[in-house]
Amino acid sequence: MELPGAGQVCVAGNHAYVGHIPNKAQLGTSIVDISDPRKPVVVSQIHLDDPESHTHKARVVGDIMIVNNERNMTRIGRKADELPGLRARLRETLGRDATHAELAQALNVDAADIPKVEEAERRPYDRGGFKVYDISDKTRPRLLVHQKTGGIGVHRFDMDENYAYISTEMAGYIGNVLVIYDIRNPSRPEEVSRWWIPGQHTAGGETPTWSGRRTRLHHALRYGDELWAGLWHGGVAVIDVKDIRKPATLGSFNYHPPFPEPSHTFMPLEHPIGGRRIALAIDEEDHAHDDEELDRRRGRPHGCLWVLDVTDLSNIKALSSYEVSELDSPWSRATPGRFGAHQFQEQRRGTLVYCAWFAGGLRVVDVANPLSPREVGYFIPHPAEGRAAPQTNDVFVDDRHRIYMVDRYAGFDILEHT
Question: DSSP 3-state assignment of 252?
Fold first, then answer.
């Protein structure tokens, strides 16, 4: 189905909920009737009235849907955040106010971009957060609340009947942190607690040991009384939420360096294997914008799937990793695009893990032997029209073992693993 590019697909009952990557039509979310999986039908779509934002993630529990609200990427990015300090430093160095050309050189932008940077400084983004919808009528989603957070807003997240586990920027922190909201009254979410990596809370006097926002929460998934968190260049962590008001770290593991790609998602298997508790982590492959950048990346490991022994959370150990060979996709070196891992299904399905592998399509890997993951199936879609490669971005596997996958550029596929 030729849906516009998407960041996430979530399935509940006979409907799929697709969160879209920023697009000219300002399409945020599509609700698709999948009761006949061979003939999916769009029953409603939510368009954004804000051209600066996107809502590319969606989750559903019962009649409640939550979508993220995050600022679009722009040419100037976060340059406005740097401008006040840069002006002061250049004034001290030069003995006068810096020209636009001097500011542009220091910010690594064109001089013509400086007015845009100054406008962003005067009018900072203030719409970051998440939106809660009543979807009891799938044809007419009804907005209940736009909950504001901070910074550029919310990225990926998890939710259940009682709580939303939100990955967001917040004032006073550097990079995304975990903010847990009580959503039992969905029209009035209430913050109940926060968790962050030591060093992120700069307003509290902490100093990060890393540069920029490289170490931050990507998102955390709840399984039982634990949250399993991907921490980008900070590796992975397990968080105790028995007391929802006092999240506490149970264990962490970081394989950066030497591995270059950031940790995206972390999930425990449902049952032990050989007496050991096993977990999976997957990295997100960086973007190669052109052939020159692709050439610089040669010899560097692609984003991959990790199998970890988490029997002792104070001593997490890597058991194995799984990579897809560049020979296993005709589009592995196409640019612009990515070839490498991104995400796996967040629904536990025995020892099978269904991986969205960008230009490698869908890869189905069996980790029944944690020391030797084995691919048992794959599906590589054709590129979207006018694109150099497919970019399989997200995958969901329902209780009927149907597979739902979306592409960053365009495309929604429903598959059956026979």
Answer: strand
On the question of pLDDT at 289 being above 70, the answer is no
- DSSP E strands, 196-326: 215-223, 226-232, 236-240, 248-253, 263-268, 278-283, 305-309, 317-322
> What's CA 9's distance to the chain center, in Å?
12
The DSSP bridge partners found for residue 267 are 280
* pLDDT grade for 152, boundaries at 50, 70 and 90: very high
Return the axis-axis angle of helices 79-94 and 114-122, rounded to nearest 10°: 110
**201-223 average pLDDT score:** 96
pTM: 0.94
**100-145 pLDDT per residue, tens:** 999 999 998 899 999 989 988 888 899 999 999 999 999 999 999 9
Q: What is the CA radius of gyration of the chain?
A: 22
Distance, CA of 44 to CA of 48 (rounded, Å): 13
**How far, in Å, CA of 166 to CA of 149, rounded?**
10
As a whole number of angstroms, the distance between CA 350 and CA 45 comes to: 34
166 membership: H or E segment, kind and range: strand 163-169
For the residues of 338-407, what is the DSSP string, one character each?
Answer: -EEEEEE-SS-BTTEEEEEEETT-EEEEE-SSTTS-EEEEEE-PPPPTT-SS--EEEEEE-TT-EEEEEE
Reduced to 3 states (helix: H, G, I; strand: E, B; else coil), residue 172 is coil
Distance CA 269, CA 341 (A): 19
pLDDT at 174 over 80: yes
* Ramachandran class of 46: left when φ > 0, alpha when ψ lies in -120 to 50, beta otherwise: beta
Structure token pair of residue 288: 């190669």
Q: Give the number of other CB atoms < 10 A from CB of residue 284.
A: 21
8 Å CB contact between 76 and 109: yes
Which residues fall within 8 angstroms of residue 335, CB to CB, at 6 or more apart? 288, 289, 290, 291, 293, 294, 388
What is the rounded distance in angstroms from the CA atom of residue 104 to the CA atom of residue 262?
30
Query: How far apart are alpha carbons 352 and 398 in whole angstroms?
Result: 13
CA 310, 313, 318 angle in degrees (round to 5)? Answer: 40
pLDDT in tens, 239-271: 999 999 999 999 999 999 999 999 999 999 999
- Beta-carbon count within 10 A of 165 CB: 26
